[in-house]
Amino acid sequence: MVKDYTSLKNCINYTAIVKTRKKRSAMMNRTCFNLMISLLFTGFFLLPLTASAQGVMRIAAVVNDDVISALDLAQRVRLTIVTSRMQDSPQVRKRLASNILKLMIDERLKAQEAKKLGFGASDDEIKNGLVGYAQSQKIKPEMLVPFLNKIGVDIEVLEDQAIAEITWTKMLTRRGGERTRVSEKEVDDAFAQIQANKGKPEYLYSEIFIPVEAPSQDGAARQMSERLIGHIQNGSPFAALARDFSQSPSAANGGKLGWVQSGSISANIEAALQAIEEGGYSPVLRTQSGYYILQLHKMRISGQEEDDEILDVAQAVLPFAPNMAEDLRNAKRAAARNLAYEAQSCDNLVELAKKIEGGLGSRFANVKLSSMPGDIRTVLKPLRANQITTHEQKNKAVLVLMVCERKPVPKTPDIAKKKRLKQHLRMEKIGRENRRILQRLRRNAFVDIRL
């Protein structure tokens, strides 16, 4: 038995620690796997283990001939808690563990299928994936490893995740065939539809998608979605949760989609978007394929971008203090009116604002009118260069805004628009292919969850 214990410990060390960077693989050595299974059946894991050995050797799940260790799972949970700014408590860790384990099982299935079909990830591709992750977390790439070390997460946790996504994406894009190919006719038809829909709303939004592939999964999927809403309400970034939990192709981009036109999305999703204020998010939304959580960034009228302008703007901000008395608010309003009367130029407005107690002055260059908050956009739209106005944001501040310069946005050639449209249509097809193949892999897989 001592010999078996030593062999098993070496196997797990081989799997969890001694993976070389030249030959990365999520697949466990077959001999070690058989040894583990045989020892499990003989009751080996019922024997007392030291705390450290037990932490390393405990199995969270077996996926075909691959093992997810409890250590791997614990590190992924820790990483999600930190990057999503969740409260770290035993209750939160326990709730997250089951959901994250399901994602890790899918990652193993993806990596196994891609490897079986001959797709791999080069060191440069993995490095680029890690750089992209660091940038998404606003971490300098060279600081990623120190960041992970500080929170107790091994870099291989991210490397394994990157390998699964890189190889899976290669497989989908190169073997999808007709199911992922977008014809020129499809692009032309979609472009004609967009042209016909000018004057209708279009939306810039992000999504978190939790699929429901069978009626038995509905309760768990809804519960997970409701918990994600709770994390958003508690301050977790929407993009971080989308990257960690969404099952849509947009997850890699923090759930963010490009501009989507009315008629190109389902009626219930559009209705939900229309009910959200810019910057807000929806409640859990049930659709035919699963549950969505939506975050609306901007809404505009299609074709409006063709009349868009680029503005240079100066502003003075006179903030209201919490629970400020009305007479003090009136004094702020009077000061704003005086500023608007006295300012002779954009630079002068900024200088005068800084002389007022609590006042802030700043200048913004090359900002698209369409990208500004709706209330600011409405105020600035009729102003010509060097015109000034005041605007009050309820319970926040009174603003003095001056247009320094405005110029039209350069027109985007139709060929560039069609290129972006083709990419969007292809991503939709890849998303459907992703779900189709993953459903098949799940049905045919041997998965044994031990936790």
Structure characterization notes:
With 451 residues, this protein is α+β, with helices and mostly antiparallel strands. It has three domains: 2-173, Orthogonal Bundle (Triger factor/SurA peptide-binding fold); 176-304 and 413-444, Chitinase A, domain 3 (Roll), CATH 3.10.50; 309-408, Chitinase A, domain 3 (Roll), CATH 3.10.50.40. It is 51% helix and 18% strand. It is built from 16 helices and eleven strands. The strands form three sheets. A four-stranded antiparallel β-sheet has the order 4-3-6-5, with helices on both faces. It has a four-stranded antiparallel β-sheet with strand order 8-7-10-9. Strand 5 (285-286) and strand 6 (290-301) form a beta hairpin. The longest helix has 31 residues, at 414-444. The chain is globular. The two termini are 25 Å apart. The relative contact order is 0.10. Residues 1-53 have low confidence and may be disordered.
What is the chain-wise order of helices and strands? HHHEEHHHHHHEHHEHEEEHHEHEEHE
If strands are numbered along the chain, what order do they take across the biggest sheet?
4-3-6-5
Shape: globular
Helical amount among residues, as a percent range?
Answer: 40-55%
CATH third-level topology of the largest domain? Triger factor/SurA peptide-binding fold
Oligomeric form: single chain
Indicate the CATH class of the largest domain: Mainly Alpha
Low-confidence stretches: 1-53
In whole angstroms, how far apart are the ends?
25 Å
What's the story with the biggest beta sheet? Answer: 4 strands, antiparallel
Looking at the overall shape, the CATH architecture of the largest domain is Orthogonal Bundle
The counted number of beta strands is: 11
Total of domains: 3
Strand content: 15-25%
SS-derived structural category: alpha+beta
How many distinct helices?
16
CATH superfamily of the largest domain: Porin chaperone SurA, peptide-binding domain
* Average pLDDT reading: 84
